[in-house]
Write a sequence for this structure.
Protein backbone atom coordinates (compact mmCIF):
# COMPACT_ATOMS: atom_id res chain seq x y z
CA UNK A 1 0.00 0.00 0.00
CA UNK A 2 1.48 3.31 -1.12
CA UNK A 3 0.51 6.10 1.27
CA UNK A 4 0.05 9.61 -0.11
CA UNK A 5 0.46 12.39 2.44
CA UNK A 6 -1.75 14.80 0.49
CA UNK A 7 -4.57 12.27 0.28
CA UNK A 8 -4.14 11.38 3.93
CA UNK A 9 -4.26 15.01 5.01
CA UNK A 10 -7.44 15.66 3.05
CA UNK A 11 -9.24 12.59 4.40
CA UNK A 12 -8.18 13.43 7.96
CA UNK A 13 -9.75 16.85 7.45
CA UNK A 14 -12.79 15.36 5.69
CA UNK A 15 -13.36 12.94 8.54
CA UNK A 16 -13.53 15.83 10.98
CA UNK A 17 -15.81 17.74 8.57
CA UNK A 18 -18.26 14.83 8.41
CA UNK A 19 -18.27 14.49 12.19
CA UNK A 20 -19.30 18.17 12.43
CA UNK A 21 -22.39 17.41 10.35
CA UNK A 22 -24.05 15.54 13.21
CA UNK A 23 -23.94 18.46 15.69
CA UNK A 24 -25.03 20.59 12.71
CA UNK A 25 -27.95 18.23 12.20
CA UNK A 26 -28.73 18.48 15.91
CA UNK A 27 -29.09 22.27 15.57
CA UNK A 28 -31.00 21.95 12.29
CA UNK A 29 -33.50 19.59 13.92
CA UNK A 30 -33.32 21.26 17.34
CA UNK A 31 -34.48 24.59 15.94
CA UNK A 32 -37.42 22.91 14.26
CA UNK A 33 -38.93 21.33 17.36
CA UNK A 34 -40.78 23.15 20.12
CA UNK A 35 -38.77 24.85 22.88
CA UNK A 36 -39.63 22.14 25.41
CA UNK A 37 -38.06 19.41 23.25
CA UNK A 38 -34.90 21.05 21.90
CA UNK A 39 -32.49 19.37 24.33
CA UNK A 40 -34.16 16.01 23.84
CA UNK A 41 -33.59 16.33 20.10
CA UNK A 42 -30.00 17.55 20.35
CA UNK A 43 -29.25 14.83 22.89
CA UNK A 44 -30.40 12.05 20.56
CA UNK A 45 -27.99 13.31 17.93
CA UNK A 46 -25.06 13.75 20.31
CA UNK A 47 -25.55 10.35 21.86
CA UNK A 48 -25.65 8.82 18.37
CA UNK A 49 -22.06 10.03 17.92
CA UNK A 50 -21.01 8.21 21.07
CA UNK A 51 -22.99 5.01 20.55
CA UNK A 52 -22.17 4.47 16.89
CA UNK A 53 -18.49 5.35 17.37
CA UNK A 54 -18.13 2.40 19.74
CA UNK A 55 -20.36 0.03 17.77
CA UNK A 56 -18.43 0.87 14.60
CA UNK A 57 -14.89 0.27 15.87
CA UNK A 58 -15.93 -2.93 17.62
CA UNK A 59 -18.40 -4.57 15.27
CA UNK A 60 -20.03 -2.80 12.36
CA UNK A 61 -16.94 -1.66 10.45
CA UNK A 62 -16.00 -5.30 10.12
CA UNK A 63 -19.49 -6.32 8.99
CA UNK A 64 -19.63 -3.48 6.44
CA UNK A 65 -16.09 -3.56 5.05
CA UNK A 66 -14.59 -6.82 6.24
CA UNK A 67 -13.83 -9.62 3.77
CA UNK A 68 -17.05 -10.93 2.29
CA UNK A 69 -18.81 -13.74 4.13
CA UNK A 70 -19.36 -16.63 1.72
CA UNK A 71 -18.88 -14.57 -1.42
CA UNK A 72 -22.54 -13.52 -1.77
CA UNK A 73 -21.88 -9.84 -1.22
CA UNK A 74 -24.39 -9.74 1.63
CA UNK A 75 -22.29 -9.08 4.74
CA UNK A 76 -18.67 -8.86 5.84
CA UNK A 77 -16.94 -11.13 8.33
CA UNK A 78 -15.48 -10.41 11.76
CA UNK A 79 -11.97 -10.01 10.30
CA UNK A 80 -11.80 -6.43 11.62
CA UNK A 81 -13.66 -7.18 14.87
CA UNK A 82 -12.47 -4.89 17.67
CA UNK A 83 -10.02 -3.27 15.27
CA UNK A 84 -8.06 -6.45 14.71
CA UNK A 85 -6.28 -6.38 11.33
CA UNK A 86 -7.48 -2.81 10.94
CA UNK A 87 -4.36 -1.87 9.02
CA UNK A 88 -5.41 -4.20 6.21
CA UNK A 89 -7.21 -2.30 3.47
CA UNK A 90 -10.79 -3.53 2.99
CA UNK A 91 -10.74 -6.06 0.13
CA UNK A 92 -11.31 -4.35 -3.20
CA UNK A 93 -10.07 -0.93 -2.14
CA UNK A 94 -6.76 0.43 -3.37
CA UNK A 95 -6.07 3.00 -0.71
CA UNK A 96 -3.48 5.74 -0.65
CA UNK A 97 -4.48 6.57 2.92
CA UNK A 98 -4.03 4.46 6.07
CA UNK A 99 -6.75 1.82 6.31
CA UNK A 100 -7.51 2.94 9.85
CA UNK A 101 -8.27 6.42 8.47
CA UNK A 102 -10.65 4.89 5.94
CA UNK A 103 -12.33 3.18 8.89
CA UNK A 104 -12.64 6.51 10.74
CA UNK A 105 -13.97 8.34 7.68
CA UNK A 106 -16.64 5.69 7.14
CA UNK A 107 -17.47 5.80 10.86
CA UNK A 108 -18.74 9.37 10.49
CA UNK A 109 -21.23 8.20 7.83
CA UNK A 110 -22.38 5.39 10.12
CA UNK A 111 -22.95 8.01 12.85
CA UNK A 112 -25.00 10.53 10.93
CA UNK A 113 -27.28 7.95 9.31
CA UNK A 114 -29.16 6.88 12.46
CA UNK A 115 -28.98 10.50 13.66
CA UNK A 116 -31.00 11.51 10.59
CA UNK A 117 -33.81 9.21 11.72
CA UNK A 118 -34.45 11.32 14.82
CA UNK A 119 -36.18 14.02 12.78
CA UNK A 120 -39.04 11.74 11.78
CA UNK A 121 -39.75 10.52 15.30
CA UNK A 122 -39.06 13.87 16.99
CA UNK A 123 -40.55 14.74 20.39
CA UNK A 124 -41.70 11.26 21.42
CA UNK A 125 -38.96 8.62 21.79
CA UNK A 126 -37.80 7.17 25.10
CA UNK A 127 -34.11 7.93 25.46
CA UNK A 128 -32.91 4.47 26.47
CA UNK A 129 -35.05 2.81 23.81
CA UNK A 130 -33.57 5.15 21.21
CA UNK A 131 -30.06 4.04 22.19
CA UNK A 132 -31.08 0.38 21.95
CA UNK A 133 -32.66 1.06 18.55
CA UNK A 134 -29.64 2.74 16.95
CA UNK A 135 -27.25 0.16 18.40
CA UNK A 136 -29.10 -2.77 16.86
CA UNK A 137 -30.03 -0.79 13.72
CA UNK A 138 -26.35 -0.10 13.06
CA UNK A 139 -25.72 -3.84 13.02
CA UNK A 140 -28.77 -5.17 11.19
CA UNK A 141 -29.48 -2.32 8.76
CA UNK A 142 -26.54 0.05 8.28
CA UNK A 143 -23.77 -2.57 8.13
CA UNK A 144 -25.36 -4.82 5.48
CA UNK A 145 -26.57 -1.92 3.33
CA UNK A 146 -23.12 -0.29 3.45
CA UNK A 147 -21.61 -3.66 2.49
CA UNK A 148 -23.95 -4.11 -0.49
CA UNK A 149 -23.43 -0.62 -1.90
CA UNK A 150 -20.06 0.74 -0.68
CA UNK A 151 -17.96 -2.40 -0.52
CA UNK A 152 -16.46 -3.52 -3.85
CA UNK A 153 -17.51 -7.08 -2.96
CA UNK A 154 -21.09 -6.04 -2.17
CA UNK A 155 -23.72 -7.45 -4.49
CA UNK A 156 -25.20 -4.08 -5.54
CA UNK A 157 -21.72 -2.60 -6.04
CA UNK A 158 -20.79 -5.54 -8.25
CA UNK A 159 -23.97 -5.13 -10.30
CA UNK A 160 -22.86 -1.58 -11.09
CA UNK A 161 -25.12 0.48 -8.84
CA UNK A 162 -23.39 3.81 -8.21
CA UNK A 163 -23.48 5.70 -4.92
CA UNK A 164 -20.59 8.10 -4.59
CA UNK A 165 -21.12 9.34 -1.04
CA UNK A 166 -24.19 7.72 0.39
CA UNK A 167 -27.46 8.65 -1.32
CA UNK A 168 -28.66 5.09 -0.91
CA UNK A 169 -26.65 3.98 2.11
CA UNK A 170 -27.23 7.14 4.14
CA UNK A 171 -30.22 9.11 2.90
CA UNK A 172 -32.67 6.60 1.46
CA UNK A 173 -31.75 4.24 4.27
CA UNK A 174 -32.32 6.83 7.03
CA UNK A 175 -35.36 8.30 5.27
CA UNK A 176 -37.37 5.09 5.14
CA UNK A 177 -36.15 4.00 8.59
CA UNK A 178 -37.44 7.31 9.93
CA UNK A 179 -40.82 6.73 8.33
CA UNK A 180 -40.94 3.21 9.80
CA UNK A 181 -40.17 4.46 13.32
CA UNK A 182 -42.69 7.31 13.03
CA UNK A 183 -45.28 4.78 11.90
CA UNK A 184 -44.59 2.45 14.84
CA UNK A 185 -44.52 5.08 17.60
CA UNK A 186 -47.48 7.02 16.21
CA UNK A 187 -48.20 10.71 15.84
CA UNK A 188 -47.31 13.43 18.29
CA UNK A 189 -50.21 14.35 20.55
CA UNK A 190 -52.50 16.71 18.69
CA UNK A 191 -50.83 16.38 15.29
CA UNK A 192 -51.78 17.60 12.72
CA UNK A 193 -54.50 19.80 14.25
CA UNK A 194 -52.29 21.39 16.87
CA UNK A 195 -49.73 23.86 15.56
CA UNK A 196 -46.13 22.80 16.24
CA UNK A 197 -44.05 25.47 14.53
CA UNK A 198 -40.25 25.65 14.82
CA UNK A 199 -39.11 27.42 17.99
CA UNK A 200 -35.82 28.84 16.70
CA UNK A 201 -35.39 29.46 12.98
CA UNK A 202 -31.91 31.05 13.23
CA UNK A 203 -30.74 27.82 14.93
CA UNK A 204 -32.08 25.87 11.93
CA UNK A 205 -30.08 28.10 9.57
CA UNK A 206 -26.93 27.67 11.67
CA UNK A 207 -27.41 23.90 11.55
CA UNK A 208 -27.99 23.97 7.80
CA UNK A 209 -24.85 26.06 7.36
CA UNK A 210 -22.78 23.57 9.35
CA UNK A 211 -24.28 20.73 7.31
CA UNK A 212 -23.38 22.49 4.05
CA UNK A 213 -19.82 23.07 5.30
CA UNK A 214 -19.36 19.54 6.61
CA UNK A 215 -20.89 18.04 3.48
CA UNK A 216 -17.78 18.99 1.50
CA UNK A 217 -15.97 16.40 3.59
CA UNK A 218 -18.81 13.95 3.06
CA UNK A 219 -18.87 14.28 -0.74
CA UNK A 220 -15.43 15.50 -1.81
CA UNK A 221 -13.86 13.30 0.87
CA UNK A 222 -15.55 10.27 -0.69
CA UNK A 223 -13.03 10.53 -3.53
CA UNK A 224 -10.64 9.15 -0.86
CA UNK A 225 -7.93 11.38 -2.24
CA UNK A 226 -6.96 15.02 -2.78
CA UNK A 227 -7.46 15.01 -6.52
CA UNK A 228 -9.54 16.05 -9.55
CA UNK A 229 -12.41 13.74 -8.64
CA UNK A 230 -12.63 15.31 -5.17
CA UNK A 231 -12.59 18.75 -6.75
CA UNK A 232 -15.38 17.85 -9.16
CA UNK A 233 -17.42 16.39 -6.32
CA UNK A 234 -16.83 19.60 -4.35
CA UNK A 235 -18.04 21.84 -7.18
CA UNK A 236 -21.02 19.60 -7.96
CA UNK A 237 -22.01 19.61 -4.30
CA UNK A 238 -22.01 23.38 -4.07
CA UNK A 239 -23.73 23.83 -7.43
CA UNK A 240 -26.60 21.46 -6.71
CA UNK A 241 -27.09 22.94 -3.24
CA UNK A 242 -27.29 26.46 -4.63
CA UNK A 243 -29.78 25.38 -7.31
CA UNK A 244 -31.95 23.50 -4.81
CA UNK A 245 -32.03 26.41 -2.36
CA UNK A 246 -33.30 28.75 -5.09
CA UNK A 247 -35.72 26.18 -6.51
CA UNK A 248 -37.28 25.53 -3.08
CA UNK A 249 -37.87 29.19 -2.23
CA UNK A 250 -39.13 29.89 -5.76
CA UNK A 251 -41.64 27.05 -5.35
CA UNK A 252 -42.73 28.58 -2.03
CA UNK A 253 -42.98 32.03 -3.57
CA UNK A 254 -45.30 30.71 -6.27
CA UNK A 255 -47.33 28.37 -4.05
CA UNK A 256 -47.48 30.13 -0.67
CA UNK A 257 -46.73 33.74 -1.58
CA UNK A 258 -43.52 34.20 0.42
CA UNK A 259 -40.03 32.69 0.25
CA UNK A 260 -39.12 31.50 3.79
CA UNK A 261 -35.80 31.15 5.57
CA UNK A 262 -36.81 27.64 6.67
CA UNK A 263 -37.42 26.96 2.98
CA UNK A 264 -33.93 28.20 2.10
CA UNK A 265 -32.38 25.91 4.72
CA UNK A 266 -34.55 22.97 3.64
CA UNK A 267 -33.77 23.54 -0.03
CA UNK A 268 -30.05 23.59 0.67
CA UNK A 269 -30.27 20.31 2.58
CA UNK A 270 -32.44 18.72 -0.14
CA UNK A 271 -29.82 19.70 -2.73
CA UNK A 272 -27.00 18.31 -0.60
CA UNK A 273 -28.90 15.04 -0.20
CA UNK A 274 -29.70 14.68 -3.90
CA UNK A 275 -26.17 15.41 -5.12
CA UNK A 276 -24.59 13.06 -2.56
CA UNK A 277 -24.84 9.85 -4.63
CA UNK A 278 -24.11 11.72 -7.89
CA UNK A 279 -21.35 14.20 -7.04
CA UNK A 280 -18.53 12.02 -8.40
CA UNK A 281 -20.39 10.90 -11.53
CA UNK A 282 -22.03 13.98 -13.09
CA UNK A 283 -20.84 17.28 -14.52
CA UNK A 284 -22.08 20.74 -13.57
CA UNK A 285 -25.04 20.47 -15.98
CA UNK A 286 -26.18 17.34 -14.20
CA UNK A 287 -25.52 18.87 -10.78
CA UNK A 288 -27.58 21.95 -11.60
CA UNK A 289 -30.54 19.92 -12.85
CA UNK A 290 -30.35 17.49 -9.91
CA UNK A 291 -30.35 20.49 -7.56
CA UNK A 292 -33.29 22.19 -9.26
CA UNK A 293 -35.28 18.94 -9.28
CA UNK A 294 -34.55 18.31 -5.59
CA UNK A 295 -35.59 21.85 -4.62
CA UNK A 296 -38.95 21.67 -6.37
CA UNK A 297 -39.85 18.04 -5.75
CA UNK A 298 -38.78 17.89 -2.09
CA UNK A 299 -40.65 21.16 -1.42
CA UNK A 300 -43.80 19.55 -2.81
CA UNK A 301 -43.12 16.16 -1.20
CA UNK A 302 -42.92 17.40 2.41
CA UNK A 303 -46.68 17.99 2.33
CA UNK A 304 -47.45 14.36 1.48
CA UNK A 305 -47.32 13.45 5.17
CA UNK A 306 -50.57 15.31 5.73
CA UNK A 307 -52.30 13.23 3.05
CA UNK A 308 -50.74 10.06 4.48
CA UNK A 309 -51.57 11.08 8.06
CA UNK A 310 -48.02 10.03 8.93
CA UNK A 311 -46.31 12.33 11.43
CA UNK A 312 -42.83 12.50 9.92
CA UNK A 313 -42.23 15.47 12.21
CA UNK A 314 -39.25 17.13 10.52
CA UNK A 315 -39.70 15.71 7.01
CA UNK A 316 -36.96 13.10 6.95
CA UNK A 317 -39.02 11.21 4.36
CA UNK A 318 -39.75 14.25 2.20
CA UNK A 319 -36.16 15.52 2.20
CA UNK A 320 -33.82 12.55 2.73
CA UNK A 321 -35.79 9.68 1.20
CA UNK A 322 -37.21 11.62 -1.76
CA UNK A 323 -33.99 13.62 -2.27
CA UNK A 324 -31.90 10.45 -2.06
CA UNK A 325 -34.11 8.66 -4.58
CA UNK A 326 -33.94 11.61 -6.97
CA UNK A 327 -30.16 11.78 -6.85
CA UNK A 328 -29.73 8.02 -7.18
CA UNK A 329 -32.03 7.77 -10.19
CA UNK A 330 -30.80 10.90 -11.98
CA UNK A 331 -27.30 9.38 -12.07
CA UNK A 332 -28.89 6.98 -14.55
CA UNK A 333 -29.43 9.92 -16.92
CA UNK A 334 -26.62 12.35 -16.11
CA UNK A 335 -23.78 9.99 -15.20
CA UNK A 336 -20.72 10.64 -17.35
CA UNK A 337 -17.45 8.79 -17.69
CA UNK A 338 -15.71 12.14 -18.10
CA UNK A 339 -16.14 12.70 -14.35
CA UNK A 340 -16.28 9.15 -13.03
CA UNK A 341 -18.20 5.89 -13.24
CA UNK A 342 -20.03 4.93 -16.41
CA UNK A 343 -22.18 6.86 -18.89
CA UNK A 344 -25.88 7.34 -18.19
CA UNK A 345 -28.72 7.60 -20.73
CA UNK A 346 -27.99 11.23 -21.69
CA UNK A 347 -24.34 10.45 -22.36
CA UNK A 348 -24.93 7.52 -24.68
CA UNK A 349 -24.74 4.84 -22.01
CA UNK A 350 -28.26 3.49 -22.48
CA UNK A 351 -30.56 2.63 -19.63
CA UNK A 352 -28.45 -0.07 -18.00
CA UNK A 353 -27.15 2.27 -15.31
CA UNK A 354 -30.64 3.59 -14.57
CA UNK A 355 -31.82 0.00 -14.09
CA UNK A 356 -29.04 -0.67 -11.59
CA UNK A 357 -29.79 2.57 -9.77
CA UNK A 358 -33.49 1.73 -9.55
CA UNK A 359 -32.69 -1.75 -8.27
CA UNK A 360 -30.47 -0.36 -5.52
CA UNK A 361 -33.10 2.23 -4.54
CA UNK A 362 -35.89 -0.34 -4.28
CA UNK A 363 -33.83 -3.00 -2.52
CA UNK A 364 -32.39 -0.62 0.08
CA UNK A 365 -35.70 1.16 0.67
CA UNK A 366 -37.64 -2.07 1.14
CA UNK A 367 -34.97 -3.77 3.28
CA UNK A 368 -34.46 -0.75 5.51
CA UNK A 369 -38.18 -0.12 5.93
CA UNK A 370 -39.04 -3.70 6.78
CA UNK A 371 -36.17 -4.33 9.19
CA UNK A 372 -36.48 -0.90 10.83
CA UNK A 373 -40.22 -1.47 11.29
CA UNK A 374 -39.67 -4.91 12.82
CA UNK A 375 -36.96 -3.60 15.13
CA UNK A 376 -39.05 -0.61 16.22
CA UNK A 377 -42.03 -2.91 16.80
CA UNK A 378 -39.92 -5.31 18.88
CA UNK A 379 -38.73 -2.42 21.05
CA UNK A 380 -42.27 -1.08 21.38
CA UNK A 381 -43.54 -4.48 22.56
CA UNK A 382 -40.72 -5.10 25.02
CA UNK A 383 -39.19 -2.02 26.67
CA UNK A 384 -41.53 0.54 25.08
CA UNK A 385 -40.45 3.09 22.48
CA UNK A 386 -42.59 6.09 23.32
CA UNK A 387 -42.62 8.45 26.29
CA UNK A 388 -45.79 8.77 28.39
CA UNK A 389 -48.48 11.36 27.62
CA UNK A 390 -47.43 13.33 30.71
CA UNK A 391 -43.80 13.37 29.60
CA UNK A 392 -44.82 14.47 26.13
CA UNK A 393 -46.89 17.34 27.56
CA UNK A 394 -44.09 18.39 29.87
CA UNK A 395 -41.51 18.13 27.10
CA UNK A 396 -38.50 15.87 26.69
CA UNK A 397 -36.02 18.39 28.10
CA UNK A 398 -37.47 18.38 31.59
CA UNK A 399 -39.06 14.93 31.69
CA UNK A 400 -36.13 12.97 30.22
CA UNK A 401 -33.10 15.10 31.01
CA UNK A 402 -34.09 17.29 34.00
CA UNK A 403 -33.04 20.43 32.13
CA UNK A 404 -34.52 23.38 30.31
CA UNK A 405 -32.87 24.96 27.28
CA UNK A 406 -33.57 28.61 27.83
CA UNK A 407 -33.36 30.72 30.99
CA UNK A 408 -34.30 34.20 29.88
CA UNK A 409 -36.39 35.78 32.62
CA UNK A 410 -34.28 37.48 35.30
CA UNK A 411 -36.74 36.75 38.09
CA UNK A 412 -38.03 33.27 37.48
CA UNK A 413 -35.42 31.53 35.35
CA UNK A 414 -37.46 31.44 32.17
CA UNK A 415 -39.54 28.33 32.03
CA UNK A 416 -39.71 27.93 35.79
CA UNK A 417 -42.43 30.55 36.16
CA UNK A 418 -44.53 28.39 38.43
CA UNK A 419 -42.08 27.89 41.23
CA UNK A 420 -38.69 29.26 42.03
CA UNK A 421 -35.65 27.07 42.01
CA UNK A 422 -33.70 26.44 45.11
CA UNK A 423 -30.45 24.65 45.50
CA UNK A 424 -30.62 22.30 48.41
CA UNK A 425 -27.82 22.00 50.92
CA UNK A 426 -26.60 18.94 49.10
CA UNK A 427 -26.21 21.11 46.04
CA UNK A 428 -28.82 19.39 43.91
CA UNK A 429 -31.48 21.57 42.33
CA UNK A 430 -35.01 20.89 43.45
CA UNK B 1 -56.42 56.74 43.38
CA UNK B 2 -57.01 54.78 40.23
CA UNK B 3 -55.11 52.10 38.36
CA UNK B 4 -55.04 52.75 34.65
CA UNK B 5 -54.41 49.64 32.57
CA UNK B 6 -53.73 50.15 28.89
CA UNK B 7 -53.09 47.43 26.31
CA UNK B 8 -51.43 48.98 23.28
CA UNK B 9 -49.46 48.16 20.17
CA UNK B 10 -45.85 47.40 21.17
CA UNK B 11 -44.24 49.93 18.84
CA UNK B 12 -46.25 52.72 20.49
CA UNK B 13 -44.70 52.15 23.92
CA UNK B 14 -41.93 54.73 23.68
CA UNK B 15 -44.28 57.47 22.46
CA UNK B 16 -46.80 56.76 25.21
CA UNK B 17 -44.09 56.75 27.87
CA UNK B 18 -42.73 60.09 26.65
CA UNK B 19 -46.22 61.62 26.46
CA UNK B 20 -47.08 60.49 29.99
CA UNK B 21 -43.80 61.84 31.31
CA UNK B 22 -44.53 65.16 29.63
CA UNK B 23 -47.97 65.15 31.23
CA UNK B 24 -46.28 64.89 34.62
CA UNK B 25 -46.92 61.24 35.27
CA UNK B 26 -43.72 59.61 36.44
CA UNK B 27 -43.43 55.88 36.72
CA UNK B 28 -45.28 53.05 35.04
CA UNK B 29 -45.06 49.30 34.80
CA UNK B 30 -44.87 47.53 31.47
CA UNK B 31 -45.37 43.89 30.55
CA UNK B 32 -45.33 42.05 27.28
CA UNK B 33 -48.65 40.29 26.82
CA UNK B 34 -50.57 38.47 24.11
CA UNK B 35 -54.25 38.47 23.41
CA UNK B 36 -56.93 39.21 20.93
CA UNK B 37 -59.96 41.44 20.54
CA UNK B 38 -61.48 42.28 17.22
CA UNK B 39 -58.14 42.17 15.46
CA UNK B 40 -57.47 38.86 13.81
CA UNK B 41 -54.12 37.13 14.31
CA UNK B 42 -51.79 36.26 11.52
CA UNK B 43 -50.75 33.23 9.52
CA UNK B 44 -47.26 31.72 9.57
CA UNK B 45 -46.07 29.21 6.99
CA UNK B 46 -43.45 26.54 7.74
CA UNK B 47 -42.58 24.18 4.89
CA UNK B 48 -45.91 24.92 3.29
CA UNK B 49 -47.95 24.16 6.42
CA UNK B 50 -49.98 27.16 7.56
CA UNK B 51 -50.33 27.98 11.23
CA UNK B 52 -52.97 30.43 12.44
CA UNK B 53 -51.57 32.55 15.27
CA UNK B 54 -54.57 33.90 17.20
CA UNK B 55 -52.82 35.76 19.99
CA UNK B 56 -51.23 39.02 18.99
CA UNK B 57 -48.29 40.48 20.94
CA UNK B 58 -49.24 43.65 22.84
CA UNK B 59 -47.78 45.77 25.61
CA UNK B 60 -49.69 46.30 28.85
CA UNK B 61 -49.01 49.54 30.73
CA UNK B 62 -50.06 49.98 34.35
CA UNK B 63 -50.08 53.42 36.00
CA UNK B 64 -51.54 54.42 39.35
CA UNK B 65 -52.65 58.09 39.48
CA UNK B 66 -54.67 60.45 41.66
CA UNK B 67 -58.35 60.66 40.78
CA UNK B 68 -58.01 64.13 39.28
CA UNK B 69 -55.33 62.95 36.87
CA UNK B 70 -57.30 60.02 35.42
CA UNK B 71 -59.00 61.88 32.58
CA UNK B 72 -55.76 63.56 31.52
CA UNK B 73 -53.76 60.34 31.66
CA UNK B 74 -56.22 58.17 29.76
CA UNK B 75 -56.58 60.88 27.12
CA UNK B 76 -52.81 61.14 26.76
CA UNK B 77 -52.46 57.38 26.33
CA UNK B 78 -55.35 57.13 23.89
CA UNK B 79 -54.18 60.06 21.78
CA UNK B 80 -50.63 58.78 21.60
CA UNK B 81 -51.35 55.10 21.03
CA UNK B 82 -53.97 55.68 18.38
CA UNK B 83 -53.18 54.74 14.78
CA UNK B 84 -56.81 54.56 13.68
CA UNK B 85 -56.38 50.97 12.55
CA UNK B 86 -57.91 47.90 14.15
CA UNK B 87 -55.88 46.56 17.07
CA UNK B 88 -54.96 49.87 18.74
CA UNK B 89 -55.94 48.32 22.08
CA UNK B 90 -57.99 49.26 25.15
CA UNK B 91 -57.74 51.28 28.34
CA UNK B 92 -59.60 50.52 31.54
CA UNK B 93 -59.57 52.13 34.96
CA UNK B 94 -59.82 50.38 38.34
CA UNK B 95 -60.20 51.95 41.82
CA UNK B 96 -57.18 51.53 44.07
CA UNK B 97 -57.59 51.29 47.86
CA UNK B 98 -54.06 51.87 48.99
CA UNK B 99 -50.55 52.47 47.76
CA UNK B 100 -47.28 52.16 49.68
CA UNK B 101 -43.81 53.33 48.71
CA UNK B 102 -41.73 50.46 49.98
CA UNK B 103 -38.53 52.47 50.63
CA UNK B 104 -40.09 55.16 52.86
CA UNK B 105 -43.38 53.69 53.98
CA UNK B 106 -45.31 56.68 52.56
CA UNK B 107 -48.94 55.88 51.89
CA UNK B 108 -51.70 56.99 49.53
CA UNK B 109 -51.06 59.82 47.08
CA UNK B 110 -47.69 60.50 48.67
CA UNK B 111 -46.55 57.10 47.55
CA UNK B 112 -47.24 57.78 43.87
Amino acid sequence: MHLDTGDTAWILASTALVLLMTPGLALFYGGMVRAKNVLGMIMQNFVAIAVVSLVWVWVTYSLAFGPDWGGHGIIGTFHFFGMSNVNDAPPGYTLTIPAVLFMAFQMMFAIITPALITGASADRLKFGSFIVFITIWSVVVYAPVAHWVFDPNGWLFKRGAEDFAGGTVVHINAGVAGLAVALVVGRRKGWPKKAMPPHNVPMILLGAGLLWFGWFGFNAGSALGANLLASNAFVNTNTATAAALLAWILTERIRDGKPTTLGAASGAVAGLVAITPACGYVNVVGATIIGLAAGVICCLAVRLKFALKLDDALDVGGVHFIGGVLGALLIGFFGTKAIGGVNGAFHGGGFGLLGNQALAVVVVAVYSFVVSWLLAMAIKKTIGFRISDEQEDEGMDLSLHAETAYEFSPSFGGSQIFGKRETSEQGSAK
Amino acid sequence: MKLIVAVIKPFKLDEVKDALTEAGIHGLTVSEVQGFGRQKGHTEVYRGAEYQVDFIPKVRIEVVVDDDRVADATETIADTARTGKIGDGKIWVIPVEEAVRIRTGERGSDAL
Remarks:
- The mean pLDDT of chain B is 93.
- Helices of chain B lie at 13-22, 70-81.
- Strands of chain B lie at 2-8, 29-35, 42-46, 49-53, 56-65, 89-95.
- Chain B touches chain A through ten residues (CB under 8 Å).
